[in-house]
Amino acid sequence: MLRKLWQKALQEYSSISEKLPPTNFAMKRDVEEGQARCLVRLGRHAEALALAANLENKATNTDHLTTVLCLELAICSSLHNVEKTIFCLQKLISLHPFNPWNWGQLAEAYLNLEPALSAPCASSYKQNSFTSSDRSIRSSFPHSGRGCLLCFPETLPESSVFSMEASSGNNQENEKGPDNIQNSVAEKREAVLLETQMKACASFIRTR
């Protein structure tokens, strides 16, 4: 029943969008946001993210960008994608560094990374995507202040451990035995886990 209601709402938003004049940017933006939220409810997250990305590119002021980032955060949270959730929160904090809610959500997201960091195996595909995305955001939303150090690590924690695992395997493969390599990776993963916990604590402090 609810799915039918969301589908009907999406159709109505689409119908309105077709009738809007191309110069009515404000109404177009509101309609596209509504479409994205309907798509999330219908499980069509990729389409919702595409709409949100388009809205982000067309944002003309801080208020518009904040609204779009909150939309992206809602989409990523519904997907339980911790890495992209952190990415969205970093962007929100770059705009509103004194918002305690954002810092609290960032702290919880860092804590949610612990199971992945503690796991013996991790997927290496995440390294490139989030290393590059983190750096691009640093250049797109510069902000001076101590909070920025917490918001923008050189890479996200899980990316760090992935890169260290890869470098350990490549550089030491011919020099150390498998046991030594495994121990080295475990030690580095433990260090990254500790760093993640420290970032979570620091973020919680900023909520006060």
Question: Explain this structure to me?
Answer:
The chain has 208 residues and is mainly α. The protein folds into 2 domains: 1-79; 98-208. 77% of the residues lie in helices and 0% in strands. It is built from 11 helices and no strands. The protein has helices spanning 2-19, 25-41, 45-58, 62-78, 82-95, 100-112, 114-118, 126-140, 147-151, 157-171, 178-205. α2 (25-41) packs parallel to α4 (62-78).
Question: What is the total domain count?
Answer: 2
Unreliable residue stretches: 121-168
Q: What do the pLDDT scores average to? A: 76
The general outline is elongated
> What's the total number of strands?
0
What is the helix/strand order? Answer: HHHHHHHHHHH
In percent, how much strand structure appears in the residues?
under 5%
Helix percent band: over 70%
**Largest sheet composition:** none
In short:
The chain is an all-alpha fold and 208 residues long. Helix content is 77%, strand content 0%. The chain has eleven helices and no strands.
